[in-house]
Amino acid sequence: MSSQARILVIDDDESMRDSCRQALARKANRVEVAEDGLSGLEILEKEAFDLVILDLKMPGLSGMEVLSRIKQEYPDVVVVVITGYATVESAVEAMRHGAYDFLPKPFTPESLRAIVERALDTRELAFENILLRSELEASVGSEVIIGQSEPMRNIEEVMRKVSPTDTTVLISGESGTGKELVARAIHRHSGRNDKPFVVVDCGSLVENLFESELFGHVKGSFTGATATKYGRLELANGGTVFFDEIGNISMNVQTKLLRVLQEREITKVGSTQVIKVNVRVIAATNKDLQKAVQAGTFRDDLFYRLSVVPVTLPPLRERRDDIPPLANYFLKKYNQKRKKNIHAISTKAMNALVEHDWPGNVRELENAIERAVVLTENDTIEPSDLLYYGLKASTIPELDTDRPRRLADVEKEHIARTLRMFGGHKGKTADWLGIDRKTLRTKLKRYGIN
């Protein structure tokens, strides 16, 4: 059973309320009591609970009515029904209305603790399943951090020191440098490693849905809210929440996020119920947040709260010594994934990889190796198998050998050709070129490609 579970006992019998409080408080739970259904619902409106012990037979609102209200308004709360009028019909009716289980009076403290423990375990499993589905939907890059260059060794030393703490970390770096990998590694080596690691992609969420995604919402709180939703911060409780591309959030959301970091509590959209959260915060950005602060687009107090320990990831072009081990790792990975048996990357091909600037960084390198593994018909990757940043030797036309073409012209032509090949679909074009959509948009604007 989860430690410090929040339990509400709703029963009109004072001796029963006291007995339940004493039996459950011994397990370090926080137990509140209410003498009738209306009082219980008022308490639930103001404070979040994990489990409710509910008497079916009460004056005023019946237990069955209270049960229906709880499951409609707070579906994540587990309800255990108790009654001195135990019948098969009432048990079936209570279960049909969403009760977890049914406990007839009189009962022993041991039987109450046992059923509460099972109920809380079930709730925790449900949370884990929601989190698992969320993580499976998230796009995670390579599984390990590889790098023996001096910049990476320095970063690993900082990670070693900061991981065991609960200190907030701000990871900066260009797109594709592995910011999420660093965040996951910090979480994996922390005291929270058995708790959730929850990603909030600030770059993909629109303004009017951000609060719902972050804090959750109750059913009916806005058009389209057909069910109560868990927020990312609630799912991350006890673990780590990772704000990816934190520089993209609006000033309005910045204010609310700052309040969460200060108070460590949230309120779902459309609710007045306060939920305490215990999370470690790691944020990442590909923007210069100090310049954003100076420009007035990012709150300085939020910046200083996030950047307690700053970590800056260098682009791949500044740590070329890491390219060969990264390339060989990706070769092994995609050999297994694509069921190929490519023995090596030739010396010429590896030299070409090391000499390339990799504007898409590690993500672009991974895409280049995956494509080479898929497309090559040999047991060794050669330069002719490499397609990175839209360039491949066999695709560059030799119009005039006496006057070499500028790299920018070749790049522009290849991007335009690839865009036409995918019918103008920017997402597929960016994936094929091995760059992210933002980089592609920048290139299209620079070259005037529509």
What do these coordinates show?
With 450 residues, the chain is an alpha/beta fold. It contains 18 helices and 16 strands. The chain has three domains: 6-132, Rossmann fold (3-Layer(aba) Sandwich), CATH 3.40.50.2300; 150-314, Rossmann fold, CATH 3.40.50; 317-447, Helicase, Ruva Protein, domain 3, CATH 1.10.8. Strand 11 (265-267) and strand 12 form a beta hairpin. The protein is elongated, with a radius of gyration of 28 Å. The relative contact order is 0.08.
Core attributes:
five-stranded parallel β-sheet, Rossmann fold, Helicase, Ruva Protein, domain 3, alpha/beta, 18 helices, 450 residues, 3 domains, 16 strands, 14% strand
Spans of at least 5 consecutive residues with low confidence: 136-143, 389-402
What do the pLDDT scores average to?
A: 83
Helix segment tally: 18
How many runs of DSSP E, i.e. beta strands?
16
CATH top level of the largest domain is: Alpha Beta
End-to-end Cα distance, whole Å, is: 58 Å
Secondary structure layout plus pairing:
Layout lengths: L5 E5 L3 H12 L4 E5 L2 H10 L4 E5 L7 H11 L4 E6 L4 H9 L4 E4 L4 H29 L12 H13 L6 E4 L6 H10 L8 E5 L5 H9 E2 L11 E2 L1 H4 L4 E5 L6 H13 L1 E3 L6 E3 L3 E6 L3 H7 L4 H7 L2 E4 L10 H15 L6 E2 L1 H9 L5 H15 L4 E2 L25 H15 L4 H8 L3 H11 L3
Parallel strand pairs: 1-2, 1-3, 3-4, 4-5, 6-13, 6-14, 7-10, 10-13, 15-16
Antiparallel strand pairs: 8-9, 11-12
Helix pairs in contact: 1-5, 2-3, 13-15, 16-17, 17-18
